[in-house]
């Protein structure tokens, strides 16, 4: 071939294959640096080949290094570090263009992430008034679009939340203030109630002792009535016995009258006998003189007997009259005692009524006392609850104030309107 | 997809494999790519912070690494064929390594890029390394 030896042809063939293997990355080392062509014209070509193959290997190395560095940098990108770019310049134009594109992507993404980070830092400083916006070139449905839309949704949510929080806080502050007032009113009412209950308890004590005294007096009256009843009964008995005695006196008087009548009769006959004796004596003369004196004496005695009998009769009549009178009095007494007994019975019944009424009163008082005690406990409970409610109201006010202060310390869309609106209504200092 | 096929104890790298690692000034690994991890049988966490001799194979002569270090310390690029050991096994793989000295923000480091060597390249390396200590 062109006057080239077959050995040189073989070497040339090997060298051509080797060149392509190396440049396409199938081999690493050029094995024919030291081989020589015997044909003179080929010796010069060999020099060119040697130089160019070394250049080619160098270019390969440059590209390799650039790719290795790219891998290192991309790993850092993968790990979230966007601040290092690919520095080495590859020999291959395509690789270089690729590297520039990669670097551009890293820079753009870094700037987009930086925007987001800055925004989130602003949010972290409690300023929710701004957001990041889509770029014109952002592809619909892409991750960035989702991210930015998500940020907007989050911003809206936070703003709404803060608006609600501020509004609720102000309203809560107001409500808690009202609650506190109501609780204070309740507390005052409870204290007043406690005072009146104390008075009531005092009055009840007084009433209790009154009723107890009443009951005692009724008891006294009952025993007095019983004593009186006994006395009246005794009186009635005595009156009865008096009446019996009077009757006996009358019977005795009648017996006396009968005896007197006998005596009068005897006196009369004695008088007649003495008269007869005097007449006989006179007849007898002096002999009868002494006898006449005796007869006269007998006559005198008979007359005196008759007189005495008259006196006794009169006295008996008087006694009869007195006993009659006594009878009447005894009868009246008996009637009087009966009236008294009736009255005592009525009194006893009245006293019983009073006693019953006192017992019922005592029961009523007992119930009232229980009720008052319960009311007192309830009032104390109320006062305690009022105190607790006051603590809660205070805590609520504190929390509401903290809530309002917290919300008001943040910057968000709609804050000024709420502040203005509510300040106007509630006159709250936000 | 695996970057090698096994042939006995040898892991034969695929044509597309590209193993990269980086060490600091003292040869402590500070970066390794997926191909490197796969071939050597380590996870990246196991490699970072370790000396690069973690993959050293006993068949490799000291002289090779002496040359490597002398070259890169001079600020020159080193290349050569290296037999490496796989983690916890008698498996190994051959690479053609190119080691670059790097100066980044005043800090020295070294990046090694590895490609698959062809059979005759490995064979002549075996012969060469037999003559070295
Ligand atoms: C960037 C870089 C990559 C390295 N890659 C390897 C490697 O793949 N395999 C290896 O055995 N040594 C590699 N070394 C060399 C090791 O640092 C070490 O010198 C070698 O494993 C010998 O270990 P020794 O120094 O503990 O004897 C690399 C060194 C550098 C700087």
SSE topology:
The complex is a heterodimer of chains A (430) and B (133).
Chain A: H1 6-23, H2 40-78, H3 93-124, H4 143-283, H5 289-409, H6 415-426
Helix pairs in contact in A: 1-2, 4-5, 4-6
Chain B: E1 4-7, E2 10-13, E3 19-24, E4 29-32, H1 34-40, H2 44-47, H3 62-73, E5 78-85, E6 92-104, E7 107-115, H4 119-131
Antiparallel strand pairs in B: 1-2, 3-4, 3-7, 5-6, 6-7
Bound molecules: flavin mononucleotide (FMN).
The site of flavin mononucleotide has 15 residues of chain B, from strand 3, helix 3, strand 5 and strand 7.
Order of helices and strands of chain A: HHHHHH
The value of Rg of chain A in angstroms is 76 Å
Kindly identify the CATH topology of the largest domain in chain A: Helix Hairpins
Helix content of chain B: 25-40%
Percent in strands of chain B = 35-45%
Question: What can you see in these coordinates?
Answer:
The complex is a heterodimer of chains A (430) and B (133). With 430 residues, chain A is mainly α. Chain A folds into 2 domains: 6-114; 158-429, Methyl-accepting chemotaxis protein (Helix Hairpins). Chain A has helices at 6-23, 40-78, 93-124, 143-283, 289-409, 415-426. Chain A is rod-shaped and about 260 Å long. Residues 426-430 of chain A have low confidence and may be disordered. Chain B is α+β, with helices and mostly antiparallel strands and 133 residues long. Chain B has 4 helices and 7 strands; from the N terminus they run ββββαααβββα. Chain B has helices spanning 34-40, 44-47, 62-73, 119-131; strands spanning 4-7, 10-13, 19-24, 29-32, 78-85, 92-104, 107-115. At the A-B interface, α2 of A face β6 and β7 of B. The complex binds flavin mononucleotide. Flavin mononucleotide is lined by residues 21, 23, 27, 52-53, 55-56, 60, 65, 68, 82, 84, 99, 110, 112 of chain B.
